[in-house]
């Protein structure tokens, strides 16, 4: 559908990923029993900042963004998951598969929520700016990364502010197809009562109407000469109020909407519930079982995209430190074992491709990744590792 | 006024697309066909009126070239012509026409899709049967393709390409009152909210152009010479087709309208939007004074659902059906 969707999807998902990682990194810094006594040791604080900087630098790499902003169809969930896997490992941080799965679940459900709750399609741009504003704040002490972020603002403004409302709706519809049938329950959403226990989001019939819309309830009838001859009120069945002022679409400004701002904090940990979702996902589209004919094109796209991804060589695995998105190691292991099959992201399904060029290109890129032993310490990374795919070719 | 009936379960959930529900009533066989689009698949259900028999079928979008990307479907709609009924499916790659039960594809028209994707998306959207032998389909460039359909067989031909709109077509409707007196046959709407009113024929004639106000018109209907248009602002406007006179303006919904329908025998109007609400209105046309009156009759709220399709199941508006994003059912309501 819309060929301008990928940049927004990537930046918003990336933004959510950073919120979650930032929260987990802060939470892991504080040993439970020492929380109130010792100050956070300086080297841990430095590491956290380094991880965030490394990931943000990679996210806003110039070549990478150039590829991203080209008109193209949206990637499949699997392909996008692969990109974020690489991104998450663009620093010394390591995530096991269960944690990476959970991270991706949270990112996608959060952005799905934001897309659904936007009162009008153009507000998705404001949500994107909220994420960008937060990213800018993360790197405010690093001028070189800051300039990359500013450049991205300019690209977003240049590409999206001239679009019509209809084009934004097409982008929104494309995003909603990407998020179709995802009903993973997220603790924070359940607690705040914005998500029901069946995984569906609450859509209130109250609150401010979108900017540009009138509160429903009025019928005006006109004569042939254009004079209003009568007006009737009707019951709109909701509890609507006047629209808020329009948010700013510039580099700086009040975005007005809270969607896309950071909803996590150290005291509000992130959890997802896997149980019960398998029942709901019984309706999962069966069309993805058909051999994927676009694997070859996706592979080409990925190769070009990865080519632009400068990956920080982690040195040796000893320097890397592991981040766990669960409360304990045991929980993380349990989550991996008990994850329902239909929710596994799996590896990209590669049909036997005779295209030597695409394979060679990808092999070369994979070569760069493996040079310094970029191996996740967990043996269970096989499912989401491009290397595993290469073995299969 | 209406109460909820038993829903029909469908194989996939509905995608968030304008006018995402097709309904075809087949009285002689006492059944109704429904179509709901999910990504690149059309889910068809045939439901018997006694509620005892349901049969399902899925139609895939046609991908003439496997190496290229998936073709997402934009719309599926039934076209009722005097001699035959067809099911038309429009996608990013082209237009497919099937026999109304979805059993055989009788025609395929490929769109000119560029080698590499362009900033402006390419797709077909907006489907209507017009007069006795035409099926009109809109395209993202703003063009409307007019197909000439013989009374049987697959010798369907592209008769004309009408270029008047400059923005992607959102919806097309034809005069549904059955009256021979109406001058205008067809109305088309685009993403800028512009409406074009046409007379069909060997060469389609533009009768009137009603400018939009930079707000997409997602759904349009034509009844007894009156255009009913639903907009992204949640407004419904009723115009006199041939003159463009604005008769009525309704602040109808709190979010983007996704579907409008009219029951031609009773003058009932159905509107549905992202705000979870379906509303039923009544239109009264008084030709002597050239006035149109609208009364609001009923609201239905489909909790926590952004509605994407709503249609009457019969010409009187005795029953209507609704689809919503992420919902794997067709919800039905009947008059009490």
Strand residue percentage of chain B: over 45%
Q: Specify Rg of chain A, calculated over alpha carbons.
A: 23 Å
State the major sheet of chain B. 5 strands, antiparallel
Number of domains of chain B: 1
Can you tell me the residue ranges of chain A where pLDDT is under 50 for at least 5 consecutive residues? Answer: 31-38, 274-294, 312-318, 347-393
Helix percentage range of chain B: under 10%
Binned strand content of chain A: 5-15%
Poorly predicted runs of 5 or more residues of chain B: none
End-to-end separation of chain B in angstroms reads 6 Å
Using the 3D structure, state the CATH architecture of chain B: 7 Propeller
Number of strands of chain A: 8
InterPro entries (chain B): WD40/YVTN_repeat-like_dom_sf, WD40_repeat_dom_sf, WD40_rpt, WDR54_beta_prop, WDR55/POC1
WD repeats (chain B): 250-291
Domain WD repeat-containing protein 54 beta-propeller (chain B): 1-334
Keywords (chain B): Repeat, WD repeat
Structural account:
The complex is a heterodimer of chains A (393) and B (336). Chain A has helices at 6-29, 42-59, 62-68, 77-88, 97-117, 123-138, 143-160, 165-178, 187-191, 277-280, 295-308, 329-338, 356-370, 386-392, and strands spanning 93-94, 185-186, 206-208, 218-222, 228-233, 239-241, 272-273, 321-322. Helix content of chain A is 47%, strand content 6%. Chain A is mainly α. With 336 residues, chain B is mainly beta. Chain B has a single domain (2-112, 119-335), classed as YVTN repeat-like/Quinoprotein amine dehydrogenase (Methylamine Dehydrogenase, Chain H, 7 Propeller), CATH 2.130.10.10. Chain B is globular and about 50 Å long. The mean pLDDT of chain B is 93. The interface between A and B is large, with 62 and 72 residues. Strand 4 of chain A pairs antiparallel with strand 22 of chain B.
């Amino acid at each position: 559908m819309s060929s301008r969707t990928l940049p927004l999807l990537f930046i918003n998902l990336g933004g959510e990923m950073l919120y979650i990682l930032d929260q987990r990194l802060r939470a892991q810094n504080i040993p439970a029993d020492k929380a109130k006594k010792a100050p956070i040791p300086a080297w841990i604080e430095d590491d956290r900042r380094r991880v965030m900087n490394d990931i943000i630098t990679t996210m806003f790499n110039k070549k990478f963004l150039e590829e991203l902003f080209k008109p193209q169809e949206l990637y499949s969930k699997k392909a996008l998951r692969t990109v974020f896997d690489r991104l998450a490992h663009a620093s010394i941080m390591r995530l096991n598969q269960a944690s990476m799965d959970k991270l991706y679940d949270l990112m996608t459900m959060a952005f799905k929520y934001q897309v659904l709750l936007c009162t009008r399609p153009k507000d998705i741009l404001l949500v994107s700016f909220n994420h960008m504003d937060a990213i800018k704040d993360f790197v405010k002490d690093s001028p070189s990364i800051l300039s990359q972020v500013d450049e991205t603002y300019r690209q977003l403004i240049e590409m999206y502010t001239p679009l019509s409302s209809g084009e934004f709706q097409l982008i929104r519809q494309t995003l909603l197809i990407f998020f179709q049938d995802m009903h993973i329950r997220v603790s924070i959403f359940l607690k705040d009562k914005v998500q029901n226990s069946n995984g569906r989001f609450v859509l209130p019939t109250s609150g401010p109407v979108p900017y540009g819309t009138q509160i429903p309830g009025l019928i005006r009838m006109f004569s042939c000469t254009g004079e209003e001859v009568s007006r009737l009120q009707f019951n709109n069945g909701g509890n609507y109020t006047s629209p808020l002022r329009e948010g700013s679409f510039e580099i700086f400004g009040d975005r007005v909407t809270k969607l896309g701002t950071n909803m996590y904090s150290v005291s509000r940990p992130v959890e997802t519930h896997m149980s019960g979702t398998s029942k709901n996902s019984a309706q999962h589209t069966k069309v993805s079982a058909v051999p994927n004919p676009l694997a070859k094109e996706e592979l080409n796209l990925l190769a070009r995209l990865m080519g632009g991804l400068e990956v920080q060589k982690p040195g040796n695995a000893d320097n890397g430190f592991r981040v766990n998105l669960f409360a304990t190691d045991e929980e993380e292991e349990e989550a991996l074992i008990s994850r329902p099959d239909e929710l596994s992201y799996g590896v990209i399904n590669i049909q036997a491709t005779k295209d030597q060029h695409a394979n060679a290109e990808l092999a070369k890129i994979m070569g760069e990744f493996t040079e310094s032993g970029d191996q996740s310490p967990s043996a269970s990374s096989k499912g989401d590792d491009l290397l595993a795919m290469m073995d299969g070719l | 006024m209406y109460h909820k009936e038993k829903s029909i379960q469908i194989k996939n959930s509905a995608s968030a697309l304008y006018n995402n529900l097709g309904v075809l009533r087949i009285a002689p066989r006492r059944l109704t066909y429904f179509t709901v689009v999910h990504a690149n698949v059309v889910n068809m259900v045939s439901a018997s009126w006694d509620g005892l028999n349901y049969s399902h079928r899925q139609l895939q979008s046609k991908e003439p070239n496997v190496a290229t990307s998936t073709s997402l479907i934009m719309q599926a709609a039934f076209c009722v012509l005097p001699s035959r009924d067809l099911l038309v499916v429009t996608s990013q790659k082209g237009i497919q026409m099937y026999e109304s039960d979805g059993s055989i594809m009788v025609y395929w028209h490929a769109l000119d899709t560029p080698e590499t994707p362009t900033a402006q998306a390419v797709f077909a959207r907006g489907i209507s049967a017009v007069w006795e032998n035409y099926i009109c389909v809109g395209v993202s460039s703003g063009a409307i393709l007019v197909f000439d359909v013989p009374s049987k067989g697959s010798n369907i031909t592209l008769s004309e390409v009408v270029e008047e709109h400059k923005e992607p077509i959102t919806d097309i409707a034809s005069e549904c009152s059955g009256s021979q007196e109406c001058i205008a046959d067809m109305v088309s709407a685009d993403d800028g909210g512009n409406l074009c009113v046409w007379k069909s024929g060997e060469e389609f004639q533009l009768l009137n152009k009603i400018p939009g106000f930079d707000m997409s018109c997602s759904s349009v209907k034509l009844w007894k010479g009156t255009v009913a248009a639903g907009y992204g602002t949640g407004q419904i406007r009723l115009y006199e087709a041939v003159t463009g006179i604005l008769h009525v303006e309704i602040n109808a919904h709190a979010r983007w309208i996704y579907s409008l329908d009219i029951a031609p025998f009773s003058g009932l109007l159905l509107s549905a939007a992202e705000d979870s609400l379906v509303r039923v209105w009544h239109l009264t046309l008084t030709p002597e004074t050239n006035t149109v009156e609208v009364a609001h009759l009923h609201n239905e709220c489909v909790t926590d659902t952004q509605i994407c399709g709503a249609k009457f199941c019969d010409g009187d508006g005795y029953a209507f059906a609704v689809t919503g994003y992420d919902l794997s059912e067709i919800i039905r309501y009947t008059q009490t």
